[in-house]
Amino acid sequence: MTIRTILVDDEKLAIQGLQLRLEKFPDVEIIDTCSNGREAIRKIKTEKPDLVFLDIQMPGFDGFSVVKGVMEIEPPLFVFVTAYQEHAVRAFEANAVNYLMKPVDEDKLADTLDRVRTRLVEKRSAEEAEKLKNVLAEVAPDAIEAIPEEADAAGALGANRFEKLINIKDRGQIFRVDVDSIEHIEAAGDYMCIRTADNSLILRETMKDLERRLDPRVFQRVHRSTIVNLNQVRQVKPHTNGECFLVLDSGAQVKVSRSYRDVVARFVH
């Protein structure tokens, strides 16, 4: 799978630096570069890339204006690249795949491209499933009724849509964490604490973005700032005010807030 990519930045050196880093990834094809927002909107509409690396602060049309300017077409995936940390929240609100700080860290770039590949496979698989359903509706309408609800984009693709390993850079090392080994995840500001039975690692990522990478049939939010691996739950202990605690395989206990209790009850018996 080739990832057709456009780079957008008003600084020529920034584009050249990103081009050099992307040379290490043979599936990334840079089809064009743009030096301003207006040019980027035009190129995105005509070239229809899979991915756009987009600077946020540019004269005239900034990065967010570019995203808004291509909403009438099926937009590509966006990765924001900027020197300004304060734009992070808006970047994720714009549904960006990731947010990279300049100068771009090579490990974070590799992790970002892993996310891009996952998103593209998910997107293309969903498109193929929809095409198949449309054909069946024309040539065999009775067959459509026999397709279970689980066969739509959220179910037919199954667990293959979601990541099996997560790369986490923590304390100067890169850990490859088997997703099945994760017990629970806690949000701490702009960081996520990934807890396994024998380790705790810090990942710089929003909870919303991390949730997109994990299978929702296994990983459920049980608190505003906590996600639990339901396969690791061994006991439910009632608490006060309609709340409860989940006891995990390791013996750790995770509090379930009242507003999430019904969600967990559907999975834990």
Characterize the structure shown.
There is one protein chain. Helix content is 32%, strand content 30%. By secondary structure, the chain is α/β, with parallel strands linked by helices. Strands 2-1-3-4-5 form a five-stranded parallel beta sheet, with helices on both faces. It has a five-stranded antiparallel beta sheet with strand order 10-9-8-12-11. Strand 13 and strand 14 (244-248) form a beta hairpin. The radius of gyration is 21 Å and the shape is globular. The model is unreliable at 147-158 (pLDDT under 50).
List keywords for this structure.
269 residues; alpha/beta; 5-stranded antiparallel β-sheet
Count the beta strands: 15
Overall mean pLDDT stands at 81
The structural class is alpha/beta
Name the strands of the widest sheet in spatial order: 2-1-3-4-5
> Which stretches are low in confidence, meaning pLDDT under 50 for 5 or more residues running?
147-158
Question: What is the makeup of the main sheet?
Answer: 5 strands, parallel
Give the distance, in angstroms, between the N- and C-terminal Cα atoms.
Answer: 41 Å
Helicity, as a percent range = 25-40%
Order of helices and strands: EHEHEHEHEHHEEEEEHEEEEEH
Beta-strand content estimate: 25-35%
Number of helices: 8
Radius of gyration: 21 Å
Q: Per the principal axes of the C-alpha atoms, what is the gross shape? A: globular
